[in-house]
């Protein structure tokens, strides 16, 4: 990563020293080559008459969030999407990135052709504001997971390590490769988010407020990095809230929205002259970025309509001064030309002015003053930055020339097989489990503690004919304990962890201390029932976690379990349940688990229990099963039922997740 060395005054030329200016030297500290990444074509994006509506309340009420906006985003350029709060920046970014796909009208093209969404998703990355990093992985581990998921499994381990090393070097994270991601600074986290996406070498990268939460120096480094990525041939688009003048001038292009319409599209340098053509003079020493937001907010009067028509709601693109004064071409026909012309050089930024040139006069605005200059960025800042960005940040991005796009148009959607992805994610999950203290040790502690407590409470009752009812209470408690410990943890910490080990430990402790029959097959049956209850309960947690938010889930999952507990056969035997309610017992997974453990302990011709009193009603295990209406029960059926419920719940969890993702779009 680029590092800033603020040189002391004595390193400055005499003139600067006298004026008190501090020079900021940008020193590239790392080699910047990304030559081992997969090759990708450069991608230009264009959108035309984009309208986005959301339904509010009754069907007839549709809120229009984007109103027929057009625009173009080019490779090799760093584009900022700016605008007042609520203007529609995030909405536009979500639509362009393919994150939102419904209720959209208008067209989006990729290198002049209609966008193929699945191809585009492969070629683009969307880095959200809150860095979605896994706290319990080191930088290198996180990168390895990304490389294993995103790079072809044909690539060897060494090749993948080379890619990782190269990216970490370029982004200045090599020294932090063994640091846990939770310990990284804000700027480093942002860089790691970018590094993780770079593995796939996406030619288009979207950033939602990449500078939020960063101090000014880190903001500068972050935007510098984005610029470096753009210079490598990528199309970099980010939303940004009122950047400083210094930051603003680092962007190549600006796309400004106000109230869902485009009020400016063009180079950052042309913003002030353009506004001036409409009679909006940005005062000297005023940040142009602030000024355009102020204008968009209506602080200088209502100019939105004037700006929208001045820029043709994004159909115009102000790249050079010529774009204001060229009256020869008709705007709409010029645009049509761009969209239909087959051999247009999409990356030729120099030609764009011509492509989008149109008659400003149509809007009743005169020729601009060409010498208008807002030089706040140059003169009011005491820190000048002598950086030749194009030279310093020369990144070989491994992007393909345009003509090779055809050859790569139909790549497989994922670089690796589903099984391989599953394996990588499983390994990562196991690693999390090992490292997550609360998840691992607290749960282990809870299971061991409760195991010993139950062992002490029900000590040696399993073979006592006088304590059979207590023993049944113990069997039922097992169901309760395993159900709640497995269920709630998945609602809270989606995705699933491994409840099996804890279940085995707990069951071994309580089985021994409560003196259940010491026969291997009975223990195996007991353990199988308990394990399946854990898995089923965990799946209930997954369904609830996938279907609703944590607050509702934590409340609803236990509440929803109450009927299953009531109909488990412990509180009311099957025959005593009203006929019209009996069907619920067939859905009660607790019933199958309880029945399984009861059969394991009292079924299969177990010999009579010991009796230390004159009369023990439950001396014969058959009597117990008879009282529980389990004489005809079948252990295999219980296991099959639990397996079916488990599978149904897993499928339901998957469907809920898919539904949730779809509705978010
Ligand atoms: N699903 C929705 N239902 C109703 N209104 C919505 C919905 N999504 C977005 N909006 C509205 O659309 C407008 C644009 O929202 P968006 O999040 O794109 O704004 P923004 O420019 O990114 O704002 P900010 O800078 O504050 O994040 C807002 O007024 C918002 O309330």
Automatic annotation (TrEMBL):
Stretches assigned to the ABC transporter domain: 45-284
Entry keyword set: ATP-binding, Membrane, Nucleotide-binding, Transmembrane, Transmembrane helix, Transport
Protein name: Putative transporter abc superfamily breast cancer resistance protein
Superkingdom of the source species: Eukaryota
GO molecular function, one term: ATP binding
One cellular component (GO) term of this entry: plasma membrane
Keyword Nucleotide-binding found: yes
Family matches, as PROSITE patterns: ABC_TRANSPORTER_1, ABC_TRANSPORTER_2
Family the entry assigns: Belongs to the ABC transporter superfamily. ABCG family. Eye pigment precursor importer (TC 3.A.1.204) subfamily.
Pfam name, any one: ABC_tran
SUPFAM superfamilies noted in UniProt: P-loop containing nucleoside triphosphate hydrolases
InterPro entries: AAA+_ATPase (IPR003593), ABC2_TM (IPR013525), ABC_transporter-like_ATP-bd (IPR003439), ABC_transporter-like_CS (IPR017871), ABCG_transporters (IPR050352), P-loop_NTPase (IPR027417)
Membrane-topology annotation of the record: Multi-pass membrane protein
Taxon lineage: Eukaryota, Metazoa, Ecdysozoa, Arthropoda, Hexapoda
Localization terms from the record: Membrane
Transmembrane portions of the chain: 440-459, 465-484, 520-547, 554-574, 635-657
């Amino acid at each position: 990563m680029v590092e800033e060395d603020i040189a002391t005054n004595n390193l400055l030329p005499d003139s600067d020293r006298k004026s008190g200016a501090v020079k900021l030297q940008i020193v590239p500290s790392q080699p910047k080559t990304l030559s081992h990444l997969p090759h990708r074509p450069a991608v230009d994006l264009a959108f035309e008459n984009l309208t986005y509506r959301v339904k509010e309340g009754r069907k007839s009420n549709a809120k229009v969030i984007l109103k027929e906006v057009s625009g173009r985003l080019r490779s090799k350029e760093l584009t900022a999407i700016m605008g007042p709060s609520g203007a529609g920046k995030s909405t536009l970014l979500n639509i362009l990135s393919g994150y939102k796909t419904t209720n959209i009208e208008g067209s989006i093209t990729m290198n002049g052709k209609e966008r193929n969404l699945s191809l585009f998703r492969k070629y683009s990355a969307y880095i959200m504001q809150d860095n979605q990093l896994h706290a319990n992985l080191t930088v290198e581990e996180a990168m390895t997971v990304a490389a294993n998921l995103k790079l072809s499994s044909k690539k060897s381990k060494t090749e993948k390590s080379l890619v990782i090393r190269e990216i970490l070097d370029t982004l200045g994270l090599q020294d932090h490769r063994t640091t846990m991601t939770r310990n990284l600074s804000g700027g480093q986290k942002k860089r790691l988010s970018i590094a993780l996406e770079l593995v796939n070498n996406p030619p288009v990268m979207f950033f939602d407020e990449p500078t939020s939460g960063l101090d000014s120096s880190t903001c500068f480094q972050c935007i510098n990095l984005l610029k470096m990525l753009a210079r490598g041939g990528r199309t970099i688009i980010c939303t940004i809230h009122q950047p400083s003048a210094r930051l603003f001038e680092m962007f190549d292009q600006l796309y400004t929205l106000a109230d869902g319409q485009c009020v400016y599209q063009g180079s950052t340098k042309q913003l002030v002259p353009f506004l001036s053509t409409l009679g909006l003079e940005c005062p000297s020493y005023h940040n142009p970025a602030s000024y355009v937001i102020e204008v968009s907010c209506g602080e200088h009067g209502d100019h939105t309509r004037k700006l929208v028509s001045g820029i043709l709601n994004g159909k115009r693109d102000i790249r050079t001064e010529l774009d204001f004064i060229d009256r020869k071409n008709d705007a709409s026909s010029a645009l049509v030309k761009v969209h239909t012309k087959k051999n247009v050089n999409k990356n030729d930024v120099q030609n764009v002015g011509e492509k989008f040139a149109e008659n400003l006069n149509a809007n009743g605005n005169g020729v601009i003053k060409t010498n208008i200059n807002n030089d706040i960025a140059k003169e009011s800042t005491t820190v000048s930055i002598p950086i030749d960005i194009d030279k310093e940040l020369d990144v070989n991005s491994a992007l393909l020339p345009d003509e090779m796009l055809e050859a790569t148009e139909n790549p497989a959607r994922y670089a690796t097989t589903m099984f391989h992805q599953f394996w990588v994610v499983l390994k990562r999950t196991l690693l999390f489990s090992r490292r997550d203290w609360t998840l691992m040790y607290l749960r282990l502690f809870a299971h061991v503690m409760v195991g010993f407590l139950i062992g002490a409470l029900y000590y040696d009752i399993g073979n006592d004919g006088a304590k059979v009812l207590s023993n049944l209470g113990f069997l039922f408690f097992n169901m309760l304990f395993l159900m709640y410990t497995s269920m709630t943890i998945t609602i809270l910490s989606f995705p699933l962890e491994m409840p099996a080990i804890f279940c085995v430990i707990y069951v071994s402790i309580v089985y021994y201390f409560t003196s259940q029959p010491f026969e291997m097959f009975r223990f195996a049956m007991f353990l199988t029932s308990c394990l399946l209850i854990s898995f089923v309960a965990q799946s209930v947690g997954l369904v609830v976690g996938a279907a609703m938010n944590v607050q509702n889930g934590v409340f609803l999952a236990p509440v929803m379990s109450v009927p299953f507990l009531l109909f488990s056969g412990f509180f009311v035997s099957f025959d005593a349940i009203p006929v019209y309610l009996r069907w619920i017992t067939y859905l009660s997974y607790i019933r199958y688990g309880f029945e399984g453990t009861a059969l394991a302990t009292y079924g299969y011709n177990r010999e009579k229990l010991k009796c230390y009193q004159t009369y023990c009603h439950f001396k014969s295990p058959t009597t117990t099963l008879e009282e529980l209406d389990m004489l005809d029960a079948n252990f295999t059926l219980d296991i099959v039922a639990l397996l079916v419920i488990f599978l149904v719940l897993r499928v339901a969890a998957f469907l809920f997740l898919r539904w949730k993702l779809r509705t978010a779009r």
